[in-house]
Amino acid sequence: MAPAILSLLQIGLLQAALLQGTAAKSGERRITNIFEPFATPAAAERDIGLFVMLITAAIFVAVCALLISTMIRFRRKPEDDERQEPPQVYGSNQIEIAWTFIPLLIIFVLIGVTARVIAVVQGANPGPAPVRARIIGHQWWFEVQFPELGVATANEIHVPVAGSSGPATMFQLESVDVIHSFWVPQLAGKLDMVPNRANTLWIDPTEPGTYLGNCAEYCGTQHANMLLRVTVEPKDEFLAWAAAQKASINVNTQDVEGRQVFESLSCVNCHAVRGTPANGKFGPDLTHVGSRQTIASGMIPNTPQNLRAWVNDAQEMKPGVLMPNMKLTKQELDSVVSYLVSLK
Ligand code: CUA
After folding, report:
1. Does residue 272 have a pLDDT over 60?
2. Closest Cα to residue 171, out of 118, 234, 126?
3. Which residue's CA is minimally distant from atom 1 of ligand 1?
């Protein structure tokens, strides 16, 4: 057990070190601190979190104080007669009523304030014409679509800064296999992604930057490596990003030889590159994979070396992932990787 935990720790540290490379990019918030919210839902949830903590801290202090005072007051003393039992007290209606009703009262207060915050956040009107995105959980990555903008990508979501300069964003959360949970702590609370159901979540981020999130519902072996990043940027930058992501690949400017190799392999059964015959729907859309900062659902930076190791044997990097080892020859590997890198 201990070595297993140690090796997990090492992987975590390694990942943190690897991701530090991409972290240098301005505005990435490395620590996803729920006490530092940057959108209305997250702020409302921070406030209720503090309120609940205040109540439970008061209970904790009261229980500890009673416990310690009892231990001191009723400790064994030298003059105690060891053969004699202490006075036996049976039942006290007043005390029993008190310790039944006070906790009940506390629970009703907590239920009440929680229900109120949920209703306020869920029922809020996120403003006129929000940007709409569909986020679909897969084992173990997030499919991202902006249907109105014609964008299809994976794991990296861009949204505009909300407020006077831009609209809020409305997410429709779905899942194709098991229950996942969408959680970007500084923007909103977690919300489950349930098969055959669409949950909605809105955010109105106030500060540009890159906010990290992750799947928050155990969904299988690689649950912990199901990461996502939300880049909040001024509206014009967001629209420029969306336009670039919408565009089909210009087949003439891409790595033509690599493209032929890619299309001759079974990669195309699972992956789409819009504007080419590759139109698989099972795996992430690769049309602009070269423009993403990370691969493997936020697990590692998107460098040619990492991409090569990933295509060579994804099972080695992320055991259990649904992409098999394609057993490519070195030449095929070189071609596929240079093609993917060229898909900006
Ligand atoms: Cu998806 Cu945990």
Report:
1. yes
2. 126
3. 180
